[in-house]
């Protein structure tokens, strides 16, 4: 088993993120001493985490980013992982018929990859995703309507749920705030999870699209048990050991 000083970059950054979530700030020298690595190593970790939108660098360390962030800023967080997920999802998007995308920036990245279709309707509860869909030839973007949810910039509430449930979809592509192998996916608000459940109830298949930073975690409101999910897409190779806990619950891509 690896000692503190021999942790890999991903393990170190997971520890840094956990400490940042707990304390709200990190002191570079203190973290370097605790992890038994050089200050340069920690500085590189913090710089890369800032580039992914996970924290804000300050003199001598870093601080957490608090409060809701704009959609474009959130889309830049772990952008490379989201692009890999979108590339995998692209093969599952039909030429015609109807699919649904939730209001996440992960499915927003999927929306940017769809490309020309032959009469595909895409329903979403995200105004930003709807705007993206409007410019794609052969794609009709449909917005559910509803009330604005400030934490996620999504549309929620009764009207959003009714809009989500009013179309029959071949597939619903959803992200999540967190995913646990036993408890399933969860969201930052009950309103958000209710709209996702309305989409899923009208879809033949629900495809859960999350980057690996969301794994082995829990948020506030339960959305889906993994037995109700047809496929879990991450940026990881499906054989990656980080997915071992999920294999018996859901198919992996």
């Amino acid at each position: 088993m690896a000692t503190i000083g021999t942790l890999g970059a991903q393990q170190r950054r997971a520890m840094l993120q956990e400490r940042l979530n707990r304390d709200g700030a990190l002191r570079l020298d203190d973290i370097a001493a605790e992890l038994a690595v050089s200050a340069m190593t920690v500085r590189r970790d913090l710089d890369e985490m800032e580039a992914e939108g996970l924290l804000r660098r300050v003199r001598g360390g870093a601080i957490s980013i608090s409060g809701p962030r704009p959609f474009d800023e959130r889309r830049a967080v772990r952008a490379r992982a989201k692009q890999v997920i979108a590339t995998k999802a692209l093969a599952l998007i039909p030429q015609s018929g109807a699919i649904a995308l939730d209001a996440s920036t992960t499915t927003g990245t999927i929306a940017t990859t769809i490309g020309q279709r032959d009469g595909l309707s895409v329903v979403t509860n995200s105004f930003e995703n709807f705007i993206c869909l409007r410019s794609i030839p052969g794609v009709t973007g449909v917005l559910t309507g509803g009330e604005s949810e400030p934490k996620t910039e999504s549309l929620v509430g009764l009207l959003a749920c009714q809009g989500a449930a009013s179309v029959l979809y071949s597939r619903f592509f959803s992200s999540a705030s967190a995913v646990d192998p036993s408890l399933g996916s969860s969201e930052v608000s009950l309103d958000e999870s209710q709209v996702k459940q309305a989409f899923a109830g009208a879809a033949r298949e629900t495809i859960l699209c999350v980057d690996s930073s969301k794994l082995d975690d829990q948020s506030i409101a339960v959305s889906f048990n993994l037995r109700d999910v047809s496929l879990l897409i991450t940026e990881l190779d499906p054989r990656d050991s980080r997915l071992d806990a999920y294999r018996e619950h859901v198919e992996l891509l």
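Confidence is low (pLDDT under 50) at residues 1-5. The first strand starts at residue 25 and ends at 27.
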